[in-house]
């Protein structure tokens, strides 16, 4: 079957080498794209595969450049840090500029739907794909409900809603929520952030940006972060033991809503003001809340604690630019929701970096090709002299099936005080070195020994597959080769053998579900070896072949044939 591939423009760094009409002829058997002067099209989003990958990016954020085209790869482009589909999303974020309305004197047990209904149908509040619109401030140590802030798409939208509600008050109809008269006023992002992080010392908010001021108080420690350990311990305690606080008993969902607002409003864009440790303690708090919420949903029928709240918490974590892909996969595991778990492909379940993430909207074939280069580079690069970033559990049996090879980088405990911008710059240098070494290693291999691998149809488009091989007459071209079957999807790979049961059905003390990948090591220790997989018999498929237990998306893997999906 032949596929038509869109033509791409060569990078400017190559000058006239590829743009010249004297390019050597391509291999006559090559069915991929050729380098021309046509512009590079933007890649479509991969719907349904990576949570948080497809969203409407606010206008205050920068648009990431398109990733590498899936077929033609040149040596100069493959090692270009701007084209590698690995980055840090925090550096592309900017301070939000949404309109804000403040609602005071609200009832302690008020809910978000009540606030949304109070604003009216015509209010243009933030949509769920952008972020959380309603922020009910909670005192993290006591779980006491404070004020409420509502974010709108623009300042004009907030002003229009405020004028409409204020008009009712002038006519004698005082705004009311429940049995309380509430106070409505126009507010700003600075006021919202100040109330959201009240324990942050020596910080002034200016247009959403935190500015640290000199400490003039001899009895103060100065700026130590936006959140304290006491606050984070409080939100965990209110989730796991709500009966210890009278406010948490009346509104058990408030602590989870506070965490959702914290993830959305934390100044991740201020990469010089928080550390890797700050990210880790926030992730630990979210992870324990997810585990506690799942247990309460299954054991009790508490009003306000439902699947929608769990999904909102997961979506807020997926939107967090500082959580790496394996951390998000860990949260999906602890949610015990198979629909959430099935959204993560192998490139996320075995993510080898700590502060770096995948570049959004990158085709799966591009990610897998770079994973192959990284796996080759991991065999060459020596991490013995790397004191800050350690390749943990290199000999763990599950890493044998990782598309990145035996690579799992995490920061040492005594190095977690690195500022975020320094940490991801250091990791980006390592990732670039891995790709560079892997590329040079793959160039020395015989391309004909690397078979064309059948790609999952829901992970790549037909245009992403190429059967091209480089020839000696093409010195400036390197056609993206595919990894050997031992690094990819095949019938013996446990990644495709989804279990229907597990001995650890709650809490996941083992750190991962067998066959699903590896959870983030900060919260869950690694097991010495994976446990048995469960595969109940199913009816035979076409050609009399018996296929494995159907996957979470309703499709199965046929035994005895190359990887393929059955409807």
Question: Key features?
Answer:
10% strand, 567 residues, elongated, disordered C terminus, four-stranded antiparallel beta sheet, 29% helix, two-stranded antiparallel sheet, single chain, Alpha-Beta Plaits, disordered N terminus, alpha+beta
Mean pLDDT: 71
Q: What is the domain tally? A: 3
Distance from N terminus to C terminus (CA atoms, Å) equals: 21 Å
**What is the molecular shape?**
elongated
Strand order of the largest sheet: 4-5-3-8
- Using only C-alpha atoms, the radius of gyration works out to 26 Å
Q: Give me the count of strands.
A: 16
Largest sheet: 4 strands, antiparallel
Give the low-pLDDT segments.
1-62, 446-516, 521-567
The structural class is alpha+beta
Strand content: 5-15%
Helical content band = 25-40%
* Number of helical elements: 15
What is the fold's blueprint, element by element?
Layout: H1 16-19, E1 72-73, H2 75-78, E2 86-87, E3 99-104, H3 112-119, E4 134-139, E5 144-152, H4 155-170, E6 176-177, E7 180-181, E8 183-187, H5 189-196, E9 203-206, E10 209-212, H6 229-240, H7 246-250, H8 254-265, H9 276-299, H10 307-319, H11 325-335, H12 338-341, H13 346-349, E11 357-358, H14 364-378, E12 389-391, E13 409-411, H15 420-443, E14 478-479, E15 556-557, E16 565-566
Antiparallel strand pairs: 1-14, 2-11, 3-5, 3-8, 4-5, 6-7, 9-10, 12-13, 15-16
Helix pairs in contact: 6-8, 6-9, 8-10, 9-10, 9-11, 10-11, 14-15
């Amino acid at each position: 079957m032949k596929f038509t591939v869109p033509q791409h423009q060569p990078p400017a760094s190559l000058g006239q080498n590829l743009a010249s009409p004297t390019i050597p002829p391509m291999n006559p058997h090559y069915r991929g794209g050729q380098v021309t002067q046509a512009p590079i099209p933007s890649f479509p989003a991969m719907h349904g595969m990576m949570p948080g990958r497809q969203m409407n990016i606010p206008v205050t954020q920068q648009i990431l450049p398109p990733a590498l085209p899936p077929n033609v790869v040149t040596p100069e482009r493959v090692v270009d840090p701007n084209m590698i589909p690995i980055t840090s999303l925090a550096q592309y974020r900017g301070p939000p500029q949404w309109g804000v309305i403040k609602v005071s004197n609200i009832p302690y047990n008020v809910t978000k739907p009540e606030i949304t209904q109070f604003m009216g149908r015509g209010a243009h509040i933030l949509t769920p794909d952008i972020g959380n619109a309603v922020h009910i401030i909670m005192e993290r140590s006591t779980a006491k409900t404070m004020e409420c802030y509502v974010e709108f798409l623009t300042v004009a939208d907030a002003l229009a809603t405020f004028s409409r509600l204020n008009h009712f008050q002038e006519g004698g109809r005082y705004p009311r929520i429940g049995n309380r008269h509430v106070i409505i006023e126009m507010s700003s992002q600075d006021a919202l952030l100040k109330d959201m992080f009240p324990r942050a010392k020596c910080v002034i908010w200016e247009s959403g940006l935190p500015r640290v001021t000199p400490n003039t108080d001899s009895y103060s420690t100065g700026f130590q972060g936006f959140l304290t350990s006491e606050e984070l311990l409080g939100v965990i305690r209110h989730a796991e033991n709500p009966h210890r606080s009278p406010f948490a008993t009346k509104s058990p969902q408030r602590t989870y809503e506070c965490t959702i607002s914290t993830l959305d409003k934390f100044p991740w864009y201020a990469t010089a003001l928080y550390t890797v440790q700050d990210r880790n303690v926030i992730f630990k708090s979210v992870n324990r809340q997810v585990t506690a919420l799942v247990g309460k949903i299954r054991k009790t029928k508490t009003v306000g604690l439902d699947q929608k709240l769990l999904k909102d918490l997961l979506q807020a974590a997926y939107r967090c630019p500082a959580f790496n892909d394996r951390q998000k996969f860990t949260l999906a595991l602890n949610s015990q929701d198979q629909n959430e778990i099935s959204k993560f492909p192998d490139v996320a379940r075995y993510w080898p970096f700590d502060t770096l993430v995948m570049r959004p909207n990158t085709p799966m074939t591009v990610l897998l090709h770079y994973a192959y280069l990284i796996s080759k580079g991991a065999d060459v690069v020596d991490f013995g002299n790397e004191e800050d970033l350690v390749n943990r559990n290199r000999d763990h049996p599950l890493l044998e099936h990782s598309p990145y090879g035996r690579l799992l980088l995490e920061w040492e405990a005594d190095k977690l005080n690195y500022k975020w911008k320094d940490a991801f710059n250091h990791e980006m240098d390592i990732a670039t070195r891995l790709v560079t070494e892997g590329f040079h290693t793959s160039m020395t291999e015989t391309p004909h020994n690397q078979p064309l691998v059948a790609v999952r149809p829901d992970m790549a488009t037909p245009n992403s597959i190429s059967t091209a091989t480089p020839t000696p007459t093409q010195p400036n071209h390197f056609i993206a080769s595919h990894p050997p079957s031992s690094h990819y999807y095949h019938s013996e790979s446990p990644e495709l053998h989804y279990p229907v049961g597990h001995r650890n059905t709650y809490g996941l003390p083992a750190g991962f579900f067998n066959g699903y990948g590896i959870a983030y090591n900060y919260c869950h220790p690694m097991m010495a070896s994976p446990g048995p997989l469960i595969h109940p018999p199913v009816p035979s498929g076409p050609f009399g072949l018996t296929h494995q237990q159907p996957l979470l998306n309703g499709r199965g893997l046929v035994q005895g044939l190359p990887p393929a999906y059955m409807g």
